[in-house]
Design brief:
The chain has 132 residues and is mostly beta strands. 4% of the residues lie in helices and 31% in strands. It has a 4-stranded antiparallel beta sheet with strand order 3-4-5-6, with no helix packed on it.
C-alpha cells in the first residue's frame, strides 16, 4: 500500500525491482513501468532469463492502485525492459490507447469507461519543489 503525505506518496517495490523509465502522468493518474529481474534460483537454471516489465497505475494524489481488481497490482507488459509508454488517441469510439513495448492497451479497459473522457482533454498537472 502507499504511504501518502503532504508532498506525494511512497511505495515499496518487490525485491530488486527497478524504475528505469520516466513515469507518464495524465488525468490524475501516474503510469509507471518497472523492470523485475528473474528471481535467482527460479525456473530452469540452463535457460536464458530476461525478467519482465510491469505496468502500475496509481492515483496522483493518494498513490492508490487504479488498476481494476482483475489485473491485480500490476500488468506484465513484456519481457526484458520496455519503454515508459505513450498515450495515443486515434479518435475512434474505442478511446485512447496506452502504447507500451509492443502492446497497445485501451485506457477504457485499464481504468473503466467512466474515465475515458478525462483522457480526451488536456488537464494541467504540476509539480512543486519545496526547500526544507
Amino acid at each position: 500500500s502507499a504511504t501518502a503525505g503532504e508532498f506525494g506518496f511512497y511505495r515499496e517495490l518487490a525485491a530488486n525491482e527497478k524504475i528505469l523509465q520516466p513515469t507518464l502522468t495524465t488525468a490524475g493518474r501516474v503510469f509507471l513501468t518497472t523492470y523485475a529481474p528473474p528471481v535467482p534460483g527460479a525456473g530452469d537454471p540452463c535457460a536464458y532469463q530476461t525478467g519482465e516489465s510491469r505496468l502500475y497505475i496509481y492515483d496522483l494524489k493518494t498513490g492508490a492502485n487504479k488498476l481494476p481488481d482483475t489485473y491485480g497490482p500490476y500488468i506484465v507488459v513484456g519481457s526484458g525492459i520496455t519503454d515508459g509508454g505513450r498515450i495515443f488517441d486515434t479518435g475512434d469510439s474505442g478511446g485512447p490507447y496506452l502504447l507500451i513495448g509492443t502492446s497497445a492497451l485501451q485506457l477504457v479497459d485499464l481504468l473503466g469507461s467512466g474515465n475515458q473522457t478525462n483522457f480526451r482533454r488536456f488537464l494541467r498537472t504540476g509539480w512543486s519543489e519545496f526547500d526544507d
